[in-house]
Amino acid sequence: MRIHAILMMLAFPLTVHADVGQQRAEAAGRSIVGSPAPQITLKTIDRQTINLSQLYGRKAVYLKFWATWCVPCREQMPKFQQRYEAAGDDLAVIAVNVGLSDTPEAVQAFRKQYGLTMPVVIDDGRLAAALNLQVTPQHIVIGRDARIQYVGHLENEKLDIALLAARNSKPASSTAVASADSTRAPTSLTTLPQRSLASVTGESIALRDSTAPTVLVFFSSWCESYLMQNAAQTAADCTRVREQVSELSRDSKVRWIGIASHLWATRDDVVEYASDYKVGMPLIFDEQGELFRSFRATRLPTLIFADRTGRVVRRIEGVDENLSRHVAALIYH
Predict the structure, then answer these.
(1) Residue ranges of domains in the chain, CATH in brackets
(2) Does the structure show a pLDDT above 90 at 3?
(3) CA distances from 65 to 104, 207, 231, 282, 329 (A)
(4) Contact of 278 with 303, CB cutoff 8 Å
(5) What is each CA distance from 278 to 22, 294, 300, in whole angstroms?
(6) What is the mean pLDDT of residues 113-127?
(7) Closest CA to 261 of 213, 307, 306, 217
């Protein structure tokens, strides 16, 4: 979508964006509805432990992905709190912050502002991967048989029906649970993988190249526009880093590769972003969020510096006004 279209969404976040969000959430659900739910142990921001596998078979589970900067998330929070307060012993309700450009402090402040009393988790990427996160909010309803029953975006009758069905469902004789995932948080890669990926224009891009050092730039196509409303500093950081990269990427001694988030974005959105902002470096659309998770890129923007061997030597989150010095050091590393 063009910049002016995104700005329109800022004015009409629910009427313009809602249908798109529901369509994307339902599309994301097609590959997982009916499949076993993930077996993951979560840590809340209050340092409590929630073992999802211990809930399955006893309760239905309602997970809601959200972010502090997300307009429809804010709109839905009062109803979400009401659902938690009305939940009985047959339903577990968990708020899952997506962990992108949020901090524990921001999440705590948000919880206080909206009076949230349900367990709150900041995802480390495992739930997003297991549940095919595409939008915020994204609702996941899991039945007592431990199978995913519903994926949606809107606070509507479809969600009501899904929650009622999940609560009234009977546990299967043998609870179906997805293969166990590590309870440990994923760690960041320390070396660029030896693989090539297609850019949004179809060009094959090697993540590692022995002829030159590489800088990976993790960003979102909507950071500079959508976040102006609820996360102005992050939007400003995205703009400043784009300007810095545009200037520094003219030097052919360093390879610059943009990695675009798939959250609330399509490949076409990234192509239009490149055109609107005249981005010269190749851009890779991280369709499943794999690269963001692999490098623990949880802040917009994040820069990963790697030498000619592919070894990661520096990480920058947000704006660093000494970026040109770091690039020069990388060249002669």
Answers:
(1) 3-180 (3.40.30.10), 196-331 (3.40.30.10)
(2) no
(3) 15, 30, 18, 30, 40
(4) no
(5) 31, 28, 19
(6) 97
(7) 217
What is the three-state SS of the chain? CCHHHHHHHHHCCCCCCHHHHHHHHHHHHCCCCCCEEEECEEEECCCCEEEHHHHCCCCEEEEEEECCCCHHHHHHHHHHHHHHHHCCCCEEEEEEECCCCCCHHHHHHHHHHHCCCCCEEECCCHHHHHCCCCCCCEEEEECCCCEEEEEECCCCHHHHHHHHHHHHCCCCCCCCEEEECCCCCCCCCCECCCCEEECCCCCEEECCCCCCCEEEEEECCCCCCHHHCCCHHHHHHHHHHHHHHHHHCCCCCCEEEEEEECCCCCHHHHHHHHHHHCCCCCEEEECCCHHHHHCCCCCCCEEEEECCCCEEEEEEECCCCCHHHHHHHHHCC
Place of tokens 């526009």: 225
Quote the pLDDT of residue 6: 47
Using alpha carbons, select from 68, 78, 63, 73 the residue that is nearest to residue 99: 68
Strands 302-306 and 312-317: antiparallel
Instruction: Enter the tokens of residue 5.
Output: 């279209």
Say whether the peptide bond before residue 301 is cis (omega within 30 degrees of 0). Answer: yes
Which two tokens mark 208?
Answer: 């590692």
Tokens at residue 72, please?
A: 């429809």
pLDDT averaged over the chain? 92
Which is nearest to 146 in space by CA: 182, 176, 188? 176
The β-bridge partners of 316 are 303
Task: Please compute the mean of the pLDDT values over residues 81-85 and round it to a whole number.
Answer: 97
